[in-house]
Amino acid sequence: MTAQQDPIEAFAQCYARAGANAPFDHTAMALATADAGGRVAVRIVLLHGLDARGLVFFTNYDSRKGRDIAANPQAALCFYWPWLDQQVRFEGRLERIHPAESDAYFSTRPRGKQVGAWASPQSRPLASRAELEARCAEIDRRHEGTAIPRPPFWGGFRLVPDRIEFWNAGENRLHDRFLYTRTAGAWTMERLGP
Which value, to the nearest 10 degrees, does the dihedral of the CA atoms of residues 123, 125, 129, 131 take? Predict the structure, then answer.
C-alpha cells in the first residue's frame, strides 16, 4: 500500500485476489446500520457493484435495513477473507442508486428471485411458510408469460465511503493496518497500530 494509491482501486485488486479460487463467497460483506434511536444491526449482504463512487448492494427498501438507512444513512461494511488473512472495512453514507441501475440489475436476476422480491414482506412477520409460498405462486401466476418488473420497493444502495481500512494478518499479531480517509474529495493514508 502506498499513500498515493487510490483505496478503491486497491480494494478492487484485493477483491479480485479473494475471488480467485475462493472457498467461500467472496462477495459477502457484513453491513452495519443504526436506526434513528441508535440501535445497531448487522447482517450479511452481497456486493453487486463497485466503482469509483462506492459499493452497491440490493434490498427491499421496506426491510429493517431499508428503514434504518432511511432514518440514518451512515453505515459500515466489512469484508473478511480468512483464506487470505485479510479484512477490508468501509464507513460512509448510503444513498439509493438511480432506478435505471436497479431495473438493469433486477432484469438479470433469475425469475424465482424476481418473484421472491415481490412476494416477501421482508423483515415483517409471516404466519407460516405456506403463506410465503402462496404469495410466490400468486405473483408467478400474475406474471405468467411476461417479464417481471422490478418492485418499486426494491432496489440498490451505494455506500459512498469516507473511510477505508485494510487489515492484513501479521506474525505475532503484528498486523498491517492502513486507514484511508477522504476529506475534500482527496484520500489520505496512515498506518495504524495493530
Answer: -110
